[in-house]
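Hello,

Following up on my earlier ticket. Below are the two sequence lines again, exactly as submitted.
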Amino acid sequence: KAGVTQTPRYLIKTRGQQVTLSCSPISGHRSVSWYQQTPGQGLQFLFEYFSETQRNKGNFPGRFSGRQFSNSRSEMNVSTLELGDSALYLCASSLAVGGEETQYFGPGTRLLVL
Amino acid sequence: ELKVEQNPLFLSMQEGKNYTIYCNYSTTSDRLYWYRQDPGKSLESLFVLLSNGAVKQEGRLMASLDTKARLSTLHITAAVHDLSATYFCAVDMDSNYQLIWGAGTKLIIKP
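Thanks for your patience. The regenerated structure is below:
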């Protein structure tokens, strides 16, 4: 069974630009969550989607947005990039059936903003 | 606001020794996770703990949960070099797949 895939793996952008990151969950998983990981702030929750609906959103500015498609693939977009947006962006998928299920993480997209 | 604290944040130990990583959280939680991250890599799920008194073991790692004390521990038995990594605990407060993370414990095991 294929794991969570994320594209691109690496990105270099300049301040003010926008960027779109993509995540394909494990087949059959309907929940996709996004996280930002930085050395200073650690891992922080961005948002979670289930069946094309955003169910939860973390404490990030409106420049960060996302969406989920009918095939459960998800994209996140960051507009007007700032230097502080440089981070590893991780997406995770799960079946969303509760119990002892876990979230499975993709390899991440490493974004550098210059 | 839910806070998750791990300690220690850094641990250097010799192979063959035992040690414990602690994870405290500030409010009641439905689900607690332990993950491992190798340098430059993504997160690998180790354990999911749901109920008070839950104990899970995989190889040299054992995790437990005390919901009354709001404390989880990750115990390493007879450490080997391959266990060197950063270990994170994370809490899902309302079973809504919004994980709040500890800062991570960087574990270095010397041969």
